[in-house]
């Protein structure tokens, strides 16, 4: 009986999928199609939905379409980390293409003047697909959407294309899409197998959701740290789309979701009308999905809070962002609570939502164009009330970090100025070339608020993602309110600080540790075999003050000659944008250069644990940091390989957040490596694991919370409110401790998304980083947790034999834009012997 049933399932699924992948399954039947436009099958060699399209084939098809259709132009906007092109198709009526520049400038002008006519202007819709590579129905549907837009004939499509400019981004994550297609296709049976236990439906670590360095790119729309985002954000600001759609997938047992999300979780800077229009657009999705018999829901999950997500970013930029979530078949067909879920069915729903969006855009065109016009009209009124108000940010000792925040402003078309002249406020010095002034009275004033504001009160206590991202805190920059009286020239050509060596020395060179790229410089120095030392105390040389952590390179008794040393350092200093100072005497005010308080440094030889058990995002952030910013080579050591690897090659091993830890044998091996002098840098739940294995003794603060007056229905909200989804807290630093070298202030903002609290040590010198009494700077935390975090410590050192464990409860490298705490990790690596 069982066998017959199985056979029945197999036969039906095979048949099912064959008929489901024909064009007629997806496309409307009553429309004639231009035969000169190539079908997807004619270029890919297979029907859509039969195999998972690889990015290479997707590119080939989009090129073929652009060649064949005068409705489509194709633009290559740059490369992913793996050298794949970042394509954009502009799809509109051929007459519109003839004067696209005029359409574009009229569209932008409507956001910049108080009068604009919506009558004859096309609406601009940005359609983006599969930013998560393993949510492939979007990009696979994009093949069909683009085909239909090119090939369909008749009054309806002509009307749509006349009134709409479509910015079509068929694959928001090319590297992830390619990785997933490889997985799903290589595990496919001829006889499709819907058993969820099949290998086809569970990818190996790290999966294909992310890009090359394992980033979730749908969190990078505001920080814009990744090449894929940079291309996309440039298109966005060039065009200022009215609607932007973001096609995703969710769990297999779900149905289909379209926004609005949970109303109480909308960011307060987003106008209510944005949500009302989203709801208006939603009626078109509902109608279209009703027609094909698909189940769906809205308003019960997801939200519009964090502006770094694709469906929320447009909301602070006069547009309307819309999230779609389709239940995922993951591979080609999978059992689900809603019956057999086929890949073609998921594609069909995405296709349907893409067209219901375009139908809504066309029908609601005038209302939505007026909404954007008024958004900026109102923003201008708010901006002019600001008058001469401005924000100044900077770091008198770190030009590079300042530059990188300015770079984000530039990417978002926010204008800013050089400082007119140095000034001080609240004990902080703002120095020309190390600070910028941002006038509030400008077009993107609302975006400036979204980036710089601190927020600690919220309507809801649950968040889909982080609740705070205050940029100057993330960058650990000084900032304050000022006026445009302090503004010099507008910065049009943003440049990095030019580094170099002050002059040639026969004695020694010095540089402070504050600049962002100082670890890059030191690493290159040590890698060359040049001896360098770190100052454990402050001193004055030649009238100049040098802080804790100053690096000293003696000239004599090195393998490089005096002049080789000069040119070697000069070149490195330029590459790292750092000024190195030549000194001619060892006699200082304070410690002299030959003092024992200059400690000898050894090149870090690093292994980064990756693979099963490790959080891929956190590992990817470190890989990206080392590889793209500091030119540090770290071995990505798979947890499966620890037992056969020669660990003595490394003096530093990094273990990111991990819930499961390592196997017994790997744990033993790691323990003996530490005993022999190795340094393990461990993060977040890896500390809990180390504590449970007695490799480190940690006094975690216990937080007992019982529900009082909470109903059964309210239970998950109650639990959710105790989550720290991502908020910013203030710590106090003991700057004389090597973990804090290179920090010039006594306070440091840190990002936290865990509820691990470590009690302070009874010896104060063991608490070099400590949360202040009332540490919340920005974001949501429950009262109970805020009470718990007070005066606890996010940093702890444990010793085993001759080695040590350096532990952090918080992620110091969050999403590539937390520049402010990267140095904590660098200090743990370079000054591990000094702690
Ligand atoms: Zn997704």
Automatic annotation (TrEMBL):
**Among the entry's GO cellular component annotations, what is one?**
extracellular space
For the Peptidase M14 domain, which residue ranges apply? 52-335
GO MF terms listed in the record are: metallocarboxypeptidase activity; zinc ion binding
Instruction: Give the matching SMART domains.
Output: Zn_pept (SM00631)
Translocase listed as a keyword: no
Which cofactors are reported in the record for this sequence? Answer: Zn(2+)
Keywords (A to Z) from UniProt: Carboxypeptidase, Hydrolase, Metalloprotease, Protease, Zinc
The UniProt entry's GO biological process terms, in alphabetical order, are: proteolysis
Q: Which PANTHER family match?
A: PROTEASE FAMILY M14 CARBOXYPEPTIDASE A,B, SLL0236 PROTEIN
Q: Which family does it belong to?
A: Belongs to the peptidase M14 family.
What is the recorded name of this protein?
Zinc carboxypeptidase
Say which species the protein is native to. Answer: Winogradskyella thalassocola
